[in-house]
Design a protein that fits this description.
heterodimer; A: alpha+beta; Arc Repressor Mutant, subunit A; two-stranded antiparallel sheet; 5 helices; B: alpha+beta; seven-stranded mixed sheet; six-stranded mixed β-barrel; 24 strands; 49% helix; FtsX-like permease family protein (chain B); membrane (chain B); ABC3_permease_C (chain B); Macrolide_Exporter_MacB (chain B)
Chain lengths: 115, 889
Amino acid sequence: MRRSDLGEFEELVLLAVAAMAPKAYSVLIAEELEKETGYPVSTGAVHAALQRLEQKGYLSSYLGEATQERGGRRKRLFTITTFGGKTLNEVRMLRNNLWDRIEPDTLAKIGLHFS
Amino acid sequence: MKYNNPLPPKWLDNIAARICAPHLREELIGDLNERFALRSERFGRQKALRFYLREVTSLLRPSIMKRKPSQYASTPFFNVEMIRNYFKIGTRVLRKNKGYSSIHLTGLAIGLWACMMVATVVIDSLSYDRQWTRGNDIYRIVSVDKKADGLEERMSSSNAALAPELQKLYGEVESWSEFSTTERHFKLNEKDTDGMKTEVLRMDTAAWKMLNTQVLAGSPKRFTPGTNNIIVSKSFAEKFYPGQDLVGKIIYDMPAYSAKPNTYLVTGLIKDLPYNSHLRADVIWVRQNKPETFSPEGFATFSQNYIMLRRGTDVKNFTSKVNKWHQNLSKSYASKTVVFQPMKDIYLHSDFALNQHVRGDAQTIYIFSGVAALLLFIACVNFVNLSTARAFARLKEAGVRRILSGSRGQLVLQFLTETLILFGASVVVATFFYYFTLQSVENFLGHRLVQTFITNPEMAFYASLMIILTAIFTGIYPAWLISGFKPANTLRGTITATFGQNSLRKSLVVVQFSISIVVLLATIVVWKQLNLMKNKDLGYDKRHLLSIDFISWDGKASAFKNALLENPAVVSASITHWLPGQGGGFMTREIPDPAGGKGRVKVWYIAGDLDLPKTMGLKLADGRLFSSQLSSDAINADSLQKADFMKFEEAAMLQPSILTRSAAKKLGIKHLNERIKEANTVPIGIIKDFHNESLYEPVKPTLIVAHRSPEYGGMLIRVVPGTEKQVTNTLHQLWKQFFPSKLLEIGNIEDTLNKQYEAENRMHQLFLFFSGLTMFLSALGIFGLVVQAAEQRAKEVGIRKVLGASVAGIIALLSKDFLRLVTIAILLASPLAWFSLSKWLEHYPYRTNIDWWIFAVTGLGALTITLLTISFQAVRAALADPVKALRNE
């Protein structure tokens, strides 16, 4: 199963790229994740995840323009590939299916319910 | 805000860049910087910095650190093809710059050769007495006497009964024996008139347990009583009695004291004793251990004694234990201690042991290993200096190589290969010289070298290892320097302008010259000291004086003397109990101070027949010399002593004597011909002071007394200048008539005395040699640098010339820097040399002055040599056609 090689953090990063398209790059993603999770997210970790995702074919990248804050360095911009989109979709479907199969009683018991 | 961007500290950025793989650097560092900017806007700089640090550490992950493999096929670092190429290019470069290569080669070869030689001597000296299996447990008993004036008198001999007493008292002592070396002239037949000079080791039977020897024939360990037992070494047996079995035979010696030759029974044949031992000998003379009873009072015989302690004994503890016992033995022992000198220290640390023939001098060894190390250092400095100077000529090459994708490692390897080739060639040259000079060095030292790089492969292996390490160490700096420049800069030629003003090179030159100036100063001072000792007026005429070594005259002394005096070439002759070079006198006495002062005075006695003062040529200051007319002037010491000791004492009480001035002063003599009670003598004459001993010792207050017809003694013969050979012949002839089977050893007093200063003589010669070498090497180095400077400044010189500079001006321009460096070196070296040489001279009671002119001469000499070396090249540069220099490019 190919889905198993998509780790949790990777999935988040992949989602973030999709959400921020077409301007997604590591700093933005890290900041976003930091904001969402409330924990500091290091650039290195994000970068490593992006690299892996690109290697797996879920992302494609190109070098963007240089900015002042970066000391005149260019940034690498990421976009999600169709294959990446498909995979995300598959993951989501899988989750949804499982969610759907939970009985309402059980949901209530564990303190979860859809409002 | 936009234009005033907060940036993280540079060094952190650098670390981050180091961690990152190069292909990720741009985006990653950019990201980090951007986030830093964001954060410092949000939380302030302080917090942002902390975040940044965390960011940098979080870069430490494989996916970021992993370098992208090069897209070109990489050549492995140690590739056979590449190495072959290094060698090819290396040899080509060296062959192209013949001048440079030969300067390098000469310098390095000399440095390496000197180092190898000195290393050989040092290693050989250190190898002495390391081969005995129990060597670590054997100690020589050294007697130490603390004098009132704080000086220590050390003697290698000890009371013969002390060692057995120690064995009795202390369980730690396993065994003991006397060990001493003497000389015997052995002959096969009793009637032979000539014997073979042989070194003999005297030891006790117990010594078989202490020294390991390999018995080839006979049973030497079984003692045959009633005769002298000797054990001969293989090489001695082969020389003495070729092809025959000596074991069980009786051989004879040439006696000095007895009328008839002594007999020796050969009880065994052993493998040669190790040459590198202070107990070096061809024949062992064994005696039975016969412990005398030890008593602290009364007469005692002194000999060189050794003890062997049980394995693992703490010597320090043992020594203090023994001394506690020893000092309480008697009142007179309070100042006397014993020291146990380890066997392996004896060769190098025995300057007090005058009877030990085989000994080295640790200090000389230290001095010369130091000088050799400095020499090698100078050679290596030359190498570094010249290579870095040379570097700029090769910057373009290095640049092109790097552009053509040569890595820095490869460049370093390329330059290192050149260094290694040069070192290799120098090693070959040095080894060649080493091989051929070994013999002359052995001659110079006066003994064989057992451990050499040729006979000992292990040593050779370590030496080559050392040399390779030195080569790498020397080569790495220039190689690193040359390969480190950016190719873009080197190819544009922007570096050459700033290059060459290297402070490292300047200080190296200063150090180099300081060393050679110190060595040069040392050479001059040692020479002056040697000269002083050789030429100082001794108070008597040491020239044209022959001597015969001590023998027993068998009552034929006067007859022999008279027969000798018939030869017109003999001016005068004297039978004597003391010969120059044999210490202060035949006996010493410590007598209560006659002048009434506290303490005791030590005086030395010299005895001979009536003609002794005349023969020696002593200069009379007051009173008279001995006269043959007055029968009371001499006593029949030997016959009286034999007949009745008391009578001898009585006669000696009133014995007339001649005093030296210092003795007269010490004894407070006011009137001649009045008996001095304390010294048991009646002074009849005062002579000028003379040096009985070497000039290592101050003048000794001496009394000369006369004995009639002495039984034992040597002979001093004053001859007409130039007739030494003739008189020697006469002596040989007369000897055959008088004492056909006795040992005759004729000496020349002047030679004997000069031999005392052999150490200084050797030191002087070595220093002379080394100072020449260090100067030469330093000059070589500076020559290389000047060539470089002239080349480098060719354009400058050209422009100056075009603008009208004079030749002299240009020479001054080129020489100025170097002369300044040498001047600094002189200023640095002079006080250093002055200090250490004064220290060295303190050992001598008669020392030469370190005059100011020595420094002036040395300084001027160094400057002249520098100037000559420089001007050779500077003049050429100054005379060169400026058009040539300016038109190039």
